[in-house]
């Protein structure tokens, strides 16, 4: 194997595993991510660890703090609002550009992803659910012809996954209801897109993102109140 390709493959694998560990709470908010300890755990040099941490910093999952190095980013209302407001700006634009070019194969993929989301909801598999959710949104926008915007949105969806796990993980409260609602709304988005109703689909998408945003802010505020009592 080409040494450069091998290095890139290794770095990508480390990045994927670190991202998953942050999203599933293995490394909670505020946890220090020491490069030497991670390198030993992954049995790699510090180079792919450093590259992965810089990428996670770009994604908003990690912050570099003086005297401490890389730490898992805290959840905050400002960060959540930044991510979801950007999504509301970019995703309806992508959907409007994509809908006219979506074909039968694209809708078959959307239907398959929706079926997978139904199954993940039934199994309460949050890790799988979050990935399917991101894949579904990216499949909706696949024909937009705007690769730079798609790359940005992909990163925003990854950041959103961490926040939605906080909300949907509250199974005793709103978690299951939130997952079921999202499944229903994704079906509606696919139907509106299939019908070619661009205005209705984009309006529905904007409301879909806004609803999740508002739910997350309420959940974070509730958690903060409980932590203070």
Automatic annotation (TrEMBL):
Q: SMART domains annotated for this entry? A: FCD, HTH_GNTR
Query: Pfam families annotated for this entry?
Result: FCD, GntR
Instruction: Output the InterPro entries linked to this UniProt entry.
Output: GntR_C, TF_FadR/GntR_C, Tscrpt_reg_HTH_GntR, WH-like_DNA-bd_sf, WH_DNA-bd_sf
Q: Which residues form the HTH gntR-type domain?
A: 8-75
User: What Gene3D superfamilies does UniProt report for this protein, alphabetically?
Assistant: GntR ligand-binding domain-like (1.20.120.530), Winged helix-like DNA-binding domain superfamily/Winged helix DNA-binding domain (1.10.10.10)
| Keywords for this protein | DNA-binding, Transcription, Transcription regulation
A single Gene Ontology MF term assigned here is:
DNA-binding transcription factor activity
- Going by the entry's taxonomy, the superkingdom of the source organism is recorded as Bacteria
**Keyword field contains Transcription regulation:** yes
In Swiss-Prot or TrEMBL terms, this protein is called Transcriptional regulator
Q: Which organism is it from?
A: Ancylobacter dichloromethanicus
């Amino acid at each position: 194997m080409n040494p450069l390709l091998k290095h890139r493959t290794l770095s990508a694998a480390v990045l994927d595993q670190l991202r998953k560990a942050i999203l599933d709470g293995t490394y909670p908010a505020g946890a220090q991510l020491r490069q030497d300890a991670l390198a030993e755990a992954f049995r790699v040099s510090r180079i792919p660890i450093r590259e992965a941490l810089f990428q996670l910093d770009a994604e908003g999952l990690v912050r570099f703090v003086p005297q401490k190095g890389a730490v898992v980013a805290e959840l905050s209302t400002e960060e959540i609002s930044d991510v979801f407001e950007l999504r509301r700006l970019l995703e309806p634009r992508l959907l409007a550009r994509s809908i006219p070019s979506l074909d039968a194969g694209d809708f078959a993929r959307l239907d398959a992803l929706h079926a997978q989301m139904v199954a993940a909801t039934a199994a309460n598999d949050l890790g799988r659910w979050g990935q399917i959710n991101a894949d579904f949104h990216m499949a909706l926008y696949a024909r937009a012809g705007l690769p730079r915007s798609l790359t940005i949105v992909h990163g925003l969806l990854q950041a959103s996954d961490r926040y939605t796990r906080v909300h949907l993980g509250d199974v005793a409260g709103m978690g299951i209801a939130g997952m079921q609602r999202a499944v229903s709304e994704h079906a509606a988005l696919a139907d509106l897109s299939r019908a070619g109703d661009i205005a209705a689909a984009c309006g529905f998408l904007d409301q879909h993102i806004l609803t999740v945003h508002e739910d997350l802010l309420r959940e974070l505020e509730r958690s903060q109140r409980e932590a203070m009592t």
